[in-house]
Design a protein that fits this description.
CATH superfamily of the largest domain in chain A: P-loop containing nucleotide triphosphate hydrolases
Radius of gyration of chain B: 20 Å
Number of helices of chain B: 9
Strand content of chain A: 25-35%
Radius of gyration of chain A: 18 Å
Largest sheet of chain A: 6 strands, mixed
Order of helices and strands of chain B: HHHHHHHHH
CATH class of the largest domain in chain A: Alpha Beta
Shape of chain A: globular
CATH topology of the largest domain in chain A: Rossmann fold
Number of helices of chain A: 7
Number of domains of chain B: 1
Oligomer: heterodimer
Order of helices and strands of chain A: EEEHEEHHHEHEEEHH
Structural class of chain B: mainly alpha
Shape of chain B: flat
Strand content of chain B: under 5%
Number of strands of chain A: 9
Helix content of chain B: over 70%
Distance between the termini of chain A: 37 Å
CATH architecture of the largest domain in chain A: 3-Layer(aba) Sandwich
Distance between the termini of chain B: 31 Å
Number of strands of chain B: 0
Chain lengths: 234, 221
């Protein structure tokens, strides 16, 4: 594991009857945080992004602290057109629009874009920005297959930052470095992918099936899973 | 206060008491401090002042036109404090409980359902406002009048979508009018005592406000 940038020590966060506990180190690379609905993934993502403080324990940073959290709804939108919105991210507006694949729609009202297009614009702005930590909470929500592929490729090109992907949709992943699992509010580091995959108790059906068939997985990305499926004996 | 029926009556009485007279407003706030344990849904002083902007402007306008604007602001503040207490004390489903208990499973159910849906929308709105504020801060965008159209249209569209989803859900479940609901209430003695105090404050406010003499003209003292 690379030099950690974020260290969570004895972190406890209570929400009514629910308690989240986490001890972890997040270094550079792409982390996948998975777990059942309601297990505390989003709460941990919010703590990492600095939204709310833990009730006890500490979250320490070894460096910069430019954080961006992409939530399941487009809360970042603050202007009316594509051009204005791209410009409002204080980055290269032209690059954001080009990356989002919205060239030619610069003056289109954001309300006239599809949900997927707005999502792409938001993701392009985030992933072309300068952040030390990017937390992507369900980044594929509401996207079609083509847009999912586009998001995968964009995330893959950002392995030099800390990217935490929170998702229980494991069919469209980019290349994953570290696997984390949240179970009933407890954060567990499963380890480096693909070495840790054999110990993944809550693995999705496809991964379990491939393991049952004796296929060695090289990773969790869509391409790696497709390649593994092709190696099913018989 | 656990019993929503007593809480509703208390809120009405204290709000009326606060509105009728200045002594009533002070007594209502005193009730809130002692009996209401100073609970409020207004989480920051900043939020409180934001809420006070409109009454403040109205108060200034009253002063400008030679009326007692200060009295208006104090009384409306007391009403807002009581409203925030009620909002903080409520639990999901209580309006449906009270509606059905009071007006039955047809009109009461419908009114309770409307109340619950409205309260739930207010919760969503509060949560959205928090999320938007965080998202904009992370993005480096400061709150300004320029962003209001985009932010509010986003909120409006999401609220309309939510309303549509709820309407579809109710339709799918066969809702036309009224429904079966069996409310149950926990009504401890302390709730009744606190409710009785609010009745006393209301009566004292009526007396202090010389209500019976000025009814029909103005309630401002």
């Amino acid at each position: 594991m690379n030099t950690p940038l974020i260290r969570l020590t004895g972190v406890i966060r209570k929400k009514g009857a629910f308690t989240l506990k986490a001890d972890a180190e997040f270094g550079t690379g792409i982390h996948l945080l998975t777990g059942r609905v309601g297990s505390g993934k989003t709460t941990l993502g919010e703590l990492l992004a600095g939204i709310g403080e833990p009730d006890s324990g500490t979250i320490r940073w070894n460096g910069g602290r430019r954080v961006m959290l992409l939530q399941d709804t487009s809360y970042h939108i603050s202007t009316m057109t594509v051009q204005e919105e791209a410009g409002s991210w204080h980055g290269d507006a032209e690059r954001i629009i080009r990356t989002a694949g919205l060239t030619g729609k610069e003056h289109t009202d954001l309300l006239r874009l599809s949900r997927g297009e707005v999502r792409r614009l938001e993701l392009a702005a985030i992933l072309t920005g300068q952040y030390d930590l990017i937390v992507l909470d369900e980044p594929w929500a509401g996207l079609d297959e083509e847009a999912r592929r586009w998001v995968r490729q964009l995330i893959d090109s950002h392995a030099h930052e800390i990217i935490v992907i929170i998702s229980h949709d494991l069919t469209s992943l980019p290349h994953i470095d570290q696997l984390w699992e949240m179970e009933c509010g407890r954060l567990k580091r499963l380890g480096q992918v693909p070495a840790c995959l054999s110990e993944w108790t809550l693995a999705p059906p496809l991964v379990r099936y491939l393991q049952l068939k004796g296929v060695q997985l090289s990773g969790l990305s869509r391409e790696e899973l497709e390649e593994a499926v092709c190696r099913i004996p018989g | 206060m656990q019993d929503p029926r007593i809480r509703l009556v208390t809120t009405i009485l204290l709000s009326a008491a606060a509105w009728i007279s200045l002594p009533g407003a002070f007594l209502a706030v005193l009730w809130w401090l002692i009996c209401g344990k100073a609970r409020t849904s207004i989480r920051t002083i900043r939020s409180f002042f934001i809420i006070l902007i409109v009454p403040g402007v109205m108060g200034l306008a009253a002063v400008w036109s030679g009326k007692d604007g200060l009295s208006y602001v104090v009384r409306i503040m007391a009403v807002l404090i009581i409203a925030s207490w009620m909002y903080a004390e409520r639990y999901p489903g209580e309006l449906l409980d009270v509606g059905v208990w009071f007006l039955g499973t047809k009109t009461g159910f419908d009114l309770g359902l409307i109340g619950e849906l409205s309260m739930s929308s207010l919760d969503t709105l509060a949560r959205e406002t928090d999320r938007i504020s965080i998202a904009l801060r992370q993005k480096g965008t400061s709150l300004s009048p320029r962003i209001i159209p985009a932010v509010f249209s986003g909120i409006l569209i999401r609220q309309l979508n939510l309303a549509q989803e709820r309407a579809i859900l109710l339709t799918l479940r066969g809702y036309t009018r009224g429904g079966m609901h069996c409310p149950s209430f926990s009504s401890p003695g302390i709730d009744r005592i606190n409710g009785a105090f609010s009745c006393t404050i209301f009566i004292l406010s009526l007396i202090a406000g010389d209500f019976f003499n000025i009814a029909g003209s103005t309630f401002i003292v």
